[in-house]
Design brief:
8-stranded parallel barrel, 37% helix
């Protein structure tokens, strides 16, 4: 299972050089990826994921660079297609595009959009973006992608464990993203089992909280939220649990970006 960390406002990396150093350290210690979360309208600032990923691409060579989860209905699909295609090209195939419908009515209201229409807009937006990435013309506009970028980035659908989007992610996209913070372990288990049964390829668990100084049982019950608030040996067992139910990636929130904290995460590799 791949282990990645979330680069967020909480890491206190600071502007400019601090952010660049934080991303470079993720690769230096041998982790598999860095993910950049969109928090528009959530009451705190994070870097725009596309800008952050393009900067990260310049100082890394091999790790995955993921956006999670971009709220597609908040943007015009042609503009979003251009931004995602840019990240795809600059990352040389390492960009993982996590996209979803959004879950905050206040954000939609602030942008004069109907929250109730978000799923319809998500589906239409993805169709438009993929057509443009293939080089097709949409509404008289063609992005004319360079040969290296034709087809666009692999898309991962961020959704709750239930509902029809699991099937869509399995049948039409590169994978599914499920949140460990907002979903019980039992629901994650059901969701990933359904996803894999439908032929889904890559399942990514995100929003995993960590505190290796805390205490906790090695086994997570179905009624619990999945986290790593426990001793390192126990955390490794919990990651084994996550892997064994079918997840291919774990994306962990790490408060500190120094080498010691990242090496501690790397040491949990399942």
């Amino acid at each position: 299972m791949k282990l990645a960390v979330a680069i967020t406002t909480y890491d206190r990396a600071g502007p400019g050089r601090g952010f660049i150093d934080a991303v470079a350290e993720v690769e230096a210690v041998g982790l598999d990826g860095a993910w950049f979360f969109e928090t528009l309208g959530r009451g705190y600032f994070n870097l725009d994921p596309f800008g952050a990923i393009c900067a990260a691409a310049a100082v890394t060579q091999s790790i995955d660079l993921g956006a999670c989860v971009v709220q597609a209905p908040l943007r015009h699909p042609i503009d979003l297609a251009q931004r995602a295609l840019t990240a795809h090209h600059l990352c040389n195939g390492r960009f993982l595009f996590g996209v979803g419908a959004g879950s905050s009515p206040e954000t939609f209201s602030a942008l004069d959009l109907r929250f109730e229409d978000r799923f319809q807009h998500l589906e239409a937006s993805i169709d438009t973006m993929q057509a443009l990435w293939r080089g097709e013309t949409v509404n008289g506009l063609n992005l004319t992608p360079w040969a290296s970028a034709v087809g666009g980035p692999p898309t991962f659908i961020g959704s709750w464990a239930g509902g029809r989007w699991i099937r869509i992610a399995a049948e039409h996209h590169a994978g599914w993203i499920g949140s460990a913070t907002y979903t019980t372990f039992g629901d994650l288990k059901k969701g990933v089992a359904r996803f894999k049964a439908l032929g889904g390829r890559r399942a990514i668990a995100t929003n995993i909280q960590i505190d290796l100084d805390a205490t906790g049982a090695s086994q997570i019950s179905d009624d619990d939220r999945f986290d790593l608030r426990c001793a390192p040996a126990v955390a490794a067992e919990r990651l084994n649990q996550l892997r064994d139910i079918g997840f291919d990636d774990a994306v962990i929130f790490v408060e500190s970006r120094n080498h010691d904290s990242l090496r501690a995460v790397r040491g949990l590799h399942a």
